Amino acid sequence: MTNHWSDLQNTDCALIMGGNPAENHPISFRWLTKAQEKGGKIVSVDPRFTRTSSKADVYAQLRSGTDIAFMGGMIKYAIDNELYHKDYVVNYTNAPFILKEDYKFNDGLFSGYDEATRKYDRTTWAFETNEDGTPKQDKTLKHPRSVFQLMKQHYNRYDVDTVISVTGTPKNDYLKVCETFCATGQVGKSGTIMYAMGTTQHTVGSQNVRAFGMIQLLLGNIGLPGGGINAMRGESNVQGSTDFALLHHLLPGYVGTPTAKPQHATLADYNANETPAAGYWSNKPKFLVSMLKAWYGDNATKANDFAYDYLPKGNKNYSHINLFKAMYEGKIEGTFLFGTNPVVGGPNAGKEKEALSNLKWLVAVDLWETESAAFWQKEAGGNPAEINTEVFLLPAASSYEKDGSVSNSSRWMQYRWKAIEPKGDSLADLEIIHVLVQKLKELYKNENTAAARPFNALSWNFGEGHHPDIDLVCKEINGYDLKTGKLLPTFGALMDDGTTSSGNWIYTGFYPEEGKNRAKNRDNVDTGGGNYLNWAFAWPANRRILYNRASADLNGKPWSKEKAVIWWDAAQAKWVGNDVPDFVPIKAPSDPGGNNPFIMLKDGVGGLFAPLNEGPFPEHYEPFESPASNVFSSQELNPAVEIHEGDFNLKGDASKYPIVATTYRVTEHWQSGSMTRNQEWLSELVGHMFIELSEELAKEKGIKNKDKVIVSTARGEITAYAMVTKRFKPFIIKGEKVHHIGMPWHFGYKGYATGDTANHLTPHIGDANTTIPEYKAFLCNVRRAD
Amino acid sequence: MVEINLNRRQFLKLSGATAATLAVVELGFNEKEAYAKSKELKIARATVTPTICCFCGVGCGILVHTKDNTVVYTEGDPDSPVNEGTLCSKGTTIRQVYTSEKRLTKPLYRAPGSDKWEEKDWEWMYKTIAQRTKETRDKTFVEKENGFTVNKTEAIASLGGAALDNEETYLLAKMMRGLGVVYLEHQARI
Asked: Measured between beta carbons, which residues in chain A are less than 8 angstroms from residue B140?
């Protein structure tokens, strides 16, 4: 989230799209209710009339997978009706930048596309530059090749009638959404966009989010209280585990992993090719070298590139789908699962279960016997005698049986104190990881092989014995001044010469001095604006609203007093206000760069034009499986996604599977259900797998409420109970009726509440940038079970 | 240790005893009997520890009441500016994460081709897992590839971690990268 949960009370309008906080982030909704009590509006856009929709002032349905069409139309609406915040757009975005002449867009493809590799050469997606390398600009926004004019031209194709023929939204509802949300373009108003997996789990997931970013920049909503782009995280520490880079393409703090290519051959090559000339990321070498010092300690020296060579360098996409494809093909021998259950939660989960049986060994660390740990059992559908995987199931302690911190969606790092000893013989993951490393260190200590050297060089100083000292872990994350041995007060102190260490630069400053772990802060006095600066620690630098410089105008004065966050105090010659400035604290608006609020970016302004793998502007493409052809171009599917052929990813078409299906969660269960189906009360509350379908579809299929039904896709079939409801309505897509169903994905055969797994139905295809699977839009058919 | 709002905490912890005192003063009940009644309250003299909910990303504060080596009660933390004492159905039932009979309490091992789990001790598990990891790693480790120093193994994968604490994810990333693992993924991807 750019903003945070309690800041939602400051909004004039919350557009909730691709998320259902009333159901899945229930306590966040109290802040929305407070906003509503003050006159704020809630707008809910969803294929299904959800619990959130029931609390909304405006509801509009859209067919799953058509968000870009919906948002593209809204961008056009804001431009045509001049509802955008003009001063903000001219000064704080790249709208006035001039694009090179060879940038083109035609029939769904941007210039530079190579069909054979399904990749773009981005060289034509560039700005004309002045002699000093800065982009040429036309602040009148009238230049025909300005970002603003090209954006306008791009979305001119997204007129209301075309949009609703794709999304299936009733016209009046669509217009009401545009009118209500675009009203936040007025000075003195702010609007927030809240989203979750309904936005991201698509082949165009990243561009869905980009479209949100664009409308928020146009309306001047970024950096303001009650504004921003707010991703609602689904797990208690999925924010933190992303910050700490349990992802193939990242190192801690969003530093990209080096890969096996000439540009990354040495530390100098990596720094030269991955460090932007301007913006805060120009400090990247300091972050990387300080991390290497935290990881390799004294073994990281200037002479050996700070052990840069020891970082593993891959040469391909190692993301979840590709990982399971490699496992399916027998290329992976051993796997660790830390509190994860892909046999229920992974896409095309039946194939992911099959893949596990190709492993030589599997280690599962969990509170429960999950479907994934037990994939070899007869109940899972296989023959144990034929499965040769050795399985180690380690009992883990629960969240309140150990000490440690988690970072919520607001980026607030909050400490949890140990309330009780771990149950039975279970142990904290911290200890399990620590002891495994100790055992491996023991095995390798007398070896000097190619495999032994990097691991022997890894520094591991968290105390002797089985119990690691968590305080030492915290301090290593924060980092030290290695010359004095003192903890670092801020990431501004990091160096690239090996004199500082930091395990994760964005968290540097959370432990600025001995005995002061700010994640433990519990002063709940509102320090102004609902920012609670003394409760927990928010990365970066305890800042609560990102890009907050943009809440003030070119003179450093808040755009309006209602939406003030920080402002320039000329007397004190510094930025002051309710939050930690997201800016150099003493840089005046009149200083060079003093009006460039987006400090992380090279140009210092928000990117209305911003290259991703499938283009610089979001463009609508149909999902992998779609009931209709694309009306915007002859490109049906996102041209940059990777397509896995063969039985790992079977594809169904609309002739056999005419119904659109989507997946979601319920309040009473959580993710793959292991944490909740193993509890008595929650199992009792929602005890069975079900699907929701419209009264119209039920009538056509002869299905009654509570009937058992079979849902089929090209990947498989599942049985579930039918919940016939008014919450789904048939869509009219290009003049034809299209049915839409939905189902929760929490179920499996373990625990108290059992049921078939929705993910046996979902496809193995991912977004072109992140490879997140397209769980949210696929084709199916439904019939009565008997 | 943690600083919590003591006045409020004391009120919560002592409310049973306070009620008893009032009863004695106002109604003249037998003091011993009233005190015995107050003891029946599960949270009387329980230890209260603040935690953060383990489910979604809202990060609600929860108070865990423990006594006699078990969790007797959980409730929303009124001091948290996130939830101000409120909780959803999952947060409300978090006590059962501890009390559920389905919790794993022993390390379990499944041999190749076997149809059952066997209980093993931690030491054996650690030792065997470390050996398997080393065998696979040593056999598949690539130091150089196409002229680049790569120091990786593509034969070991690690998945998961969104429910781990920050400190744990830090150690896990450091361990896996230290081993040369490139198939490092977790729930944020899916």
From this structure: 333
Quick: pLDDT tens for A412-423: 999 999 999 999
Q: How many Å apart are CA A625 and CA A651, to the nearest integer? A: 7
Please indicate whether, in this complex, the C-beta atoms of B47 and A419 are within 8 angstroms of each other. Answer: yes
Query: With contacts defined as CB-CB under 8 Å, which chain A residues touch B51?
Result: 399-400, 416-417, 419
Residue B28 has pLDDT above 60, yes or no: no
Angle between the N-to-C axes of helices A160-167 and A67-80, in degrees from 0 to 180, rounded to the nearest 10:
160
Interface ipTM > 0.85: yes
Q: What is the pLDDT of residue B33?
A: 58
B50 upstream amide cis, omega within 30 of 0: no
Give the pLDDT score at B31.
56
Rg of chain B over Cα atoms, rounded to whole angstroms, equals 25
pLDDT digits (tens, 9 = 90+) for A2-54: 999 999 999 999 999 999 999 999 999 999 999 999 999 999 999 999 999 99
Report pLDDT for A324.
98
Orientation of helix A284-296 relative to helix A267-274, angle to 10°: 150
Distance CA A257, CA A248 (A): 8
Query: pLDDT-derived band of residue B43, with 50, 70 and 90 as boundaries?
Result: confident
Which residues in chain B have their CB less than 8 angstroms from residue A685's CB?
89
Cβ separation of A24 and B56 shorter than 8 Å? yes
Which letter, b or e, does each residue of A259-288 get, where b requires 16 or more Cβ atoms within 10 Å of its Cβ?
bbeeebbebebbbeebeeeebbbebbbbbb
> Residue A452: CB partners within 8 Å, gap ≥ 6?
A444
Cα separation, B131 vs A384, whole angstroms: 24
Phi, then psi, of B61 in degrees rounded to 5: -80, 140
C-alpha A729/C-alpha A60 separation (Å) is: 11
Q: How far is CA A539 from the centre of its chain?
A: 16
By C-alpha distance, the chain A residue nearest B73 is: A419
Q: Kindly state the tokens that stand for A262.
A: 């000439």
User: How far is Cα of residue A263 from the mean position of the Cα atoms in its chain?
Assistant: 27
Torsion of CA B103, B109, B110, B115, to 10 degrees: -60
Q: Is the per-residue pLDDT at B9 higher than 80?
A: no
The verdict on domain B6-99 having CATH code 2.20.25.90 is yes
The beta-carbon neighbor of A425 closest among B98, B106, B167 is B106
Domains of chain A: 5-231 (3.40.228.10), 320-408+411-444 (3.40.50.740), 646-784 (2.40.40.20)
CA distances to A44, A59, A171 from A165, rounded to whole Å, are 19, 18, 9
* The two structure tokens encoding residue A338: 């830390």
Nearest to A429 among B52, B61, B168 (CB): B168
**Token pair of A620 as six digits:** 């609508």
pLDDT band with cut points at 50, 70 and 90 for residue B38? low
Sign of the CA dihedral running A468, A469, A471, A473: negative
For range B117-122, the mean pLDDT:
98
- A769 and chain B in contact, CB less than 8 A: no
Question: Token pair of A738, please?
Answer: 């299209």
Supply the pLDDT for residue A786: 85
Min CA distance, A662 vs chain B (Å)? 15
Query: What pTM, to 2 d.p., does this model score?
Result: 0.95
The CA distance from B140 to A333, in Å, is 10
CB neighbour list of residue A356: distance below 8 Å, 6 or more residues apart: A327, A335, A343, A362, A372, A375, A376, A389
Band of pLDDT at residue A769, cut at 50, 70 and 90: very high
Q: Where are the domains of chain B?
A: 6-99, 108-133, 141-190
Amino acid at A188: G
